[in-house]
Amino acid sequence: MPERQVTEVDGRRLVLSHLDKVLWPATGWTKGEALYYYAQVAPVMLPHLRGRPAAFLRFPQGIGEEGFFAKNPPPGLPAWVRTVTAPSREGPKERVAVDDLATLMTVANGYALELHVPQWTADSGPDHHDRLVVDLDPGPGTDLTDCCRVALVIRELLAADGLTAHPKTSGAKGLHLYAALRPAPAREVGAYAKALAERLARELPGLVVARMAKALRRERVLVDWSQNATAKTTAAPYTLRATAVPGVSTPLSWAEVEGCESPEQLAFTPDRVLERVADRGDLLAGLLTDAGELPRG
């Protein structure tokens, strides 16, 4: 395959490079295969990215070599790529909004193998979040099956507050639960998530911890509420993950969560994810439509 390949995506001229370069040495998976995956999954992925200031985990030398987390727009970004303003410790900064296929292919071609986004959009603004996220991270001695047990409890607690929970794998070890919100003050969303985590830690002390301290996490699932902070980002739905074997942050049905008996049941390759999308569509589609009101008080 040529080292450089010129193509047109949605009327934009792109120069894709080093498509034969192996980025996942354990499987021989190449940059070209990663770009193909993103091109195919884009119709269901992009609605979960649009308008959100993205951050990227970039691996120019492939998985197993040192990668880096990048928030600033990469050098040489085409002028047509949309950027949005996000707060930072140094003041407002421009970030890439992955709004369309051409932008997605551009950042992936620049070795942005993972895409992460916050719980707010440029339209709602950083002070108002339109998603609640709960990150379930298994500590030593626990695994994804334990995360599923906790997720089922969280689903009921959110439902009691009028919110609909939507699950997806992290693509690594854990599970993410989302609930769509009518834009609510960031401070209130964070407080709600923290109170939810602390309640679970009180009611399920042998299974759940709400604090980051490593000494507390053995045999327990961390209910990480902190990703609701304005400055934090979470692995986007359908993003590839920098695991030894290519993983994907994969939307799930609740039946799959209920029936999970081993972590392997919910580990999906990119090819399998594309098959699922072809068969079942976007299992996170409800996250785009069923916004609830954040409980007050």
Automatic annotation (TrEMBL):
GO MF terms here are: ligase activity
Protein name in the entry: Non-homologous end-joining DNA ligase
Signal peptide per UniProt: none
Looking up InterPro entries in the UniProt record yields: LigD_pol_dom (IPR014145), NHEJ_LigD (IPR052171)
**Gene giving rise to this polypeptide:** ligD_3
- Keywords per UniProt: Ligase
Q: Where does the record place the DNA ligase D polymerase domain?
A: 30-283
Taxonomically, what lineage is the organism? Bacteria, Bacillati, Actinomycetota, Actinomycetes, Kitasatosporales
The UniProt entry, under Pfam families, shows: LigD_Prim-Pol
